[in-house]
User: Fold these one by one.
Assistant:
Number 1:
Amino acid sequence: DTGVSQDPRHKITKRGQNVTFRCDPISEHNRLYWYRQTLGQGPEFLTYFQNEAQLEKSRLLSDRFSAERPKGSFSTLEIQRTEQGDSAMYLCASSLVGGQGHGYTFGSGTRLTVV
Amino acid sequence: GNSVTQMEGPVTLSEEAFLTINCTYTATGYPSLFWYVQYPGEGLQLLLKATKADDKGSNKGFEATYRKETTSFHLEKGSVQVSDSAVYFCAPTIQGAQKLVFGQGTRLTINP
């Protein structure tokens, strides 16, 4: 297992377009998290899944954002009608249930630029 | 809820200098405490952790001690290297909590 993988690494899109990002967690991890990080700031929580169930969504996650984890393995994060304010690094992390003492494993992120 | 306050950056030091990055937290319950490091253009990597009071986490020459009485988890290194240049994040979580809470990070630059 090579850790948490995110694809693509970089995405440039025009305002108003839809984009989709993918995250492949560590295979035995049943929790998967999405965070957003803007320049000079710490990561902000967006949402998390336990297996295929989406258990919490931040108020940061507007109606234009949707995340899925259909088979409890990989996850996708879609942003519809992108805006310039959506430009950020989108980070995915995974962990085991009860793994709070072990921390999360993060992917390298997808950097989104909306022009 | 949980929150964290980190020493504001940027911090610039010369190679072989002593490093301290302060971190204090507020949390209900008994948090586990983590330091993450982010190199340019990369995601976050777990640097070290401590899961109970008085525990000392250590890795790559970095250390941090869980101080429950002062709710602090300051990061230290005795002799920094240029390769330590990165952004450092302190993050608490608690048993049963579903997410890490990050501060704004401290950017560290080490000059040769």
Number 2:
Amino acid sequence: LLLESGGNWVLPGGSLTLSCAASGITFSGFPMTWVRQAPGKGLEWVAGSCNSGTTFYADSVKGRFTISRDNSKNILYLQMSSLRVEDAAVYYCAASLSSDWCGPDIWGRGTVVTVS
Amino acid sequence: DVVLTQSPLSLPVTLGQPASISCRSSQSLVYSDGEIYLNWFQQRPGQSPRRLIYKVSNRDSGVPDRFSGSGSGTEFTLQISRVEAEDVGVYYCMQGTHWPPITFGQGTRLGIK
């Protein structure tokens, strides 16, 4: 089970940190991903926390967003700064079902970020 | 970046009839290990996405066998043999062969006629 939190309304230029609490999976052993969905739009991959501590970002958020994880607490984070109107979306965290694949397999319910 | 183009974007189907969704990639999705990292997701109204198919044709646990995936290279298809009311939603293909970034198709909205 993945449960996101931290979504809120924020002014353009502001900052926000999202959290994703994982239960029922061996969190430390699996890559994790953030994917977002703007209102009425499709899915957009945002960032991945892969094995060996490597992280990857979409060009649209590089330098503004930071993905991190606390394996002792089974929590994934997404620190967002310099937020733009176009960052408004439902943000989903997702876990990989395989340790050698850094993609979204199991998804949480999402948390809403509003930027205006 | 790899562009995935789905068609049709809207698919009205009669209950009990088959449905087919196409996903075309801007480049071959065969990875150096020989695998093809092309997955299909279903997003029912008001819900988060759920993976149905992974690596082209492997059905996830709990997914009805009326769902099947096929394809190779740059052309992929999700088929539903007999559409049921619970299948209403948006379907997305996704590639993880050439990443970052992981990319998704635009989505196909399946509805009931």
